[in-house]
Specification:
Blueprint (H helix, E strand, L loop, with lengths): L3 H4 L17 H10 L9 H22 L5 H8 L3 H15 L8 H5 L1 H21 L3 H27 L4 H29 L10 H20 L5 H8 L6 H6 L2 H21 L2 H9 L3 H29 L1 H22 L3 H26 L7 H27 L3 H22 L10
Helix pairs in contact: 3-8, 3-9, 3-10, 4-5, 5-8, 7-8, 7-10, 8-18, 9-15, 9-17, 13-17, 13-18, 13-19, 15-16, 15-17, 16-17, 16-19, 18-19
């Protein structure tokens, strides 16, 4: 399916166009590529659209994630203290909590137009820092990329949720989520290589490359995304859709499911925030250990996303989440027990991050079906709660680590145990969704 994206700009058999000379270029393209056999039982046009969305999200995620490992390099290039960039990263995290403010954009302007807009904001950020390089333009690009992501993700999930049957949605959402791990495996080495050039403007090369690829992605959107229909939008916005926020904010079952994302992310951030300090303090390793731990985390993320792709639609969304949370309790509980050496610590980290990624990705298909006529709003709130959980986890994790890694493990296990209880008691997976 990934190769469908390459087909977007390939030539097509002109014989398929014979007899269709009266239709436009865009329609001729759709005629040629969409009249092919579908992938995994889904219309082939959806697989092409998913490929374009996934590629775009890889770019956005790469821009988001590259700040962490290359913070010192950006600090040197800009001539500002690392502490200033750390504050910037903190401000970015706070900005993500505003995601619900953008939740209704898809209803007003259509998912397709919102996706165009989000990618346009991404390209604006890349352009500003390249044209006017400096600290404040760097601040601008970091914040614009963040806004791009919190607008892009709800619209993309809403777009996919409305077009992929719930019975197969876990498989395709899992593929879409691979963009997170791919942004690490492919994106980070590419960024590092670009910044090794011996020139004062080497730090700008990542933004140039991401900008060029973003233009390519925007062109792909124009060719594969369906045109926005005002009539369809008006139907979606009518009646109960006008009070979407009130509808699900007063639904205890919906809020229970959304709270699980907060608990999962709170547990993970509680460990992630002290990762570097822990490895340095307990094992006397700095860059080597951090580099190795990043590789282990990347492998764990990719393996977890692959597990979701292969299992979630077979096991059921709710059951898969339950298995994931149960394994997470075990992983966090084992963290302080087996992390007595570098090898043990890396094994423990693999288990923790595999469990988190598997569980969190498994929640997404179910979240997209909680309130079908308010998908973008629900997902935007889920994103905000996710980052709210990360903020709380960072505060508690740093405090607890003063008493030892044992307490970080206990907190992670306790939060996942709470999530398990909530999921078991209050979250249900409607049987009618399987036929939706």
């Amino acid at each position: 399916m990934i190769f469908d994206f390459l087909n977007i700009f390939k030539g097509f058999d002109s014989r398929q166009w014979q007899g269709n000379l009266q239709i436009g270029k865009r329609e001729r393209f759709q005629y040629s590529i969409f009249n092919q056999k579908g992938f995994a039982g889904i219309d082939s046009k959806i697989t092409v659209q998913l490929s374009a969305l996934t590629f775009s999200r890889v770019l956005i995620n790469t821009a988001v994630r590259m700040v962490y490992p290359f913070l010192p390099a950006f600090s040197r290039a800009l001539g500002v203290p690392v502490e200033s960039l750390v504050l910037l990263v903190s401000a970015r995290s706070a900005l993500t909590i505003s995601a619900p403010l953008f939740g209704g954009l898809s209803d007003r302007f259509g998912e397709q137009n919102v996706l165009y807009g989000a990618l346009g904001i991404f390209l604006l950020g890349m352009s500003i820092v390249v044209i006017l390089p400096g600290f404040w333009s760097f601040v601008a690009v970091i914040l614009l990329v963040t806004i791009s992501k919190i607008i892009f993700d709800p619209a993309a999930y809403s777009f996919l949720g409305a077009r992929i049957p719930y019975s197969r949605r876990g498989f395709f959402v899992g593929i879409y989520e691979i963009s997170w791990s791919v942004s690490f495996f492919i994106g980070m080495p590419l960024i590092g290589w670009l910044m090794t050039f011996e020139t004062d403007i080497a730090w700008l090369f990542p933004f140039i490359v991401l900008g060029v690829l973003g233009v390519f992605s925007l062109a792909a959107f124009w060719r594969v995304l369906p045109k926005y229909s005002k009539e369809t939008s008006q139907k979606q916005v009518s009646k109960a859709s006008r009070s979407k926020w009130k509808t699900f904010l007063t639904d205890f079952h919906v809020l229970a499911m959304l709270s699980i994302g907060l608990l999962l992310c709170m547990a993970q951030e509680n460990v992630l925030v002290i990762l570097g300090i822990w490895l340095e303090k307990d094992f006397g390793l700095t860059l080597t250990a951090l580099g190795l731990s990043s590789l282990v985390i990347g492998i764990a993320e990719l393996a977890a996303e692959g597990g979701v792709i292969g299992l979630i639609d077979r096991w059921g969304k709710r059951s898969t989440i339950l298995y994931g949370v149960f394994f997470s309790i075990f992983a966090y509980g084992m963290l302080p027990l087996i992390a007595s050496s570098v090898t043990g610590a890396l094994i423990a980290l693999f288990l923790v991050f595999f469990a988190f990624e598997f569980t969190f990705v498994a929640t997404l298909p179910l979240v997209t079906e909680l309130v079908p006529n308010a998908r973008s709003q629900v997902i935007s709130l889920y994103i905000a709660l996710q980052w709210g959980g990360r903020s709380l986890g960072a505060l508690l994790g740093g405090y607890l680590f003063d008493f030892g890694i044992l307490w970080n493990g206990i907190l992670g296990a306790a939060l996942n145990l709470t999530a398990f209880a909530i999921l078991w008691i209050w979250v249900k997976e409607e049987s009618k969704w399987q036929n939706n």
